[in-house]
């Protein structure tokens, strides 16, 4: 089996990613209620790094106290969070992968009973799933959250992140500004729905210097009035102009959750056509995730120029040694896309996987 394409290192702004397989951000709810790193997270990521992915994206990590999507999500809201993140990034680096940090503000996709703060959004329109009426952000509120992203980026850089990803996908705050589904503003942030994101990238860039920035987007939201590929083909180049070094292509929002973690029936590489279309309009590497289920398939989509990096999440959750075992032609515990890991849909406290009792 020829896997040359996935084994080729990728150089981005002085950072060398040793191969093209990514463990994308995966919110497990394993942090403390204060958003600190736990031994459980250290164990999980140590194994994943030993497993052989070139890039491991930690997250999501909330940048604001009103921006956490669940009870036990990592946070980077204070300098106190740096020490634990430093340990987490070190464990990944020591095992040969590049550690990255995904920064998030949940926007309207959370509830005040959990965060202890009012829910905020571009417009006073509730998320159809979370249902709580958000407060419409004013200019001061917008600036505060953009500054939280910049401060969070500076902290994760200090902790040793090799790349920073800004979570603009899935209808969280940045994604909700991008989308006509959730942004009905008539001010400059509504007339130009990409502005919140491009300004945030600029503020982050000023705090982190040359560190690479990835922007994750839902290239199609698959909701009525939501972002379509036509929209995202126009906005992706603007993210690059603003400073993005990588575009990570995903799809869906809470209102189209089957696209966030696609079922098996949706088919292998369900978002590859989106990644290819975005790759055609930007001059930076693209990550594609969503039902990439084998290294052979990952190699094929890279060889065919459809993506530059392949995100493989649930298969590596089922077996953290998925990459290494696949390369060595050894059997591994297979993800069946049963979505037991979607703990929040099942009323469970955190991620589990029937294939991986060690989680
Ligand atoms: C339980 C769970 C948590 C996730 N958390 C995040 C997250 O915090 N940030 C993010 O960008 N994507 C998140 N994702 C999406 C994954 O990164 C990935 O795009 C998705 O699982 C599809 O890839 P796969 O088919 O390889 O699993 C999550 C998915 C699941 C199932």
SSE layout and pairings?
Elements: E1 10-12, E2 15-17, E3 21-23, H1 39-51, E4 55-62, E5 74-75, H2 82-94, E6 98-104, H3 112-115, E7 120-121, E8 135-136, H4 139-159, E9 163-168, H5 173-178, H6 188-191, H7 195-208, E10 213-218, H8 229-242, E11 246-250, H9 257-260, H10 272-279, E12 286-289, H11 295-303, E13 309-311, H12 314-318, H13 322-327
Parallel strand pairs: 3-4, 3-13, 4-5, 4-6, 6-9, 7-8, 9-10, 10-11, 11-12, 12-13
Antiparallel strand pairs: 1-2
CATH T-level topology: TIM Barrel
Strand arrangement across the biggest beta sheet:
3-4-6-9-10-11-12-13
Rounded mean pLDDT score: 97
Please work out how many helical segments DSSP would assign.
13
CATH homology group: Aldolase class I
Q: What is the terminal-to-terminal distance?
A: 31 Å
Low-confidence stretches at least 5 residues in length (pLDDT < 50)? Answer: none
Classify the helix fraction into a percent range.
Answer: 25-40%
Major pleated sheet: 8 strands, parallel, barrel
What's the architecture in CATH terms? Alpha-Beta Barrel
Strand content: 15-25%
Q: What's the Cα radius of gyration?
A: 19 Å
Structural class: alpha/beta
Domains counted in the coordinates: how many? 1
| CATH level 1 class label | Alpha Beta
Ligand identities = flavin mononucleotide
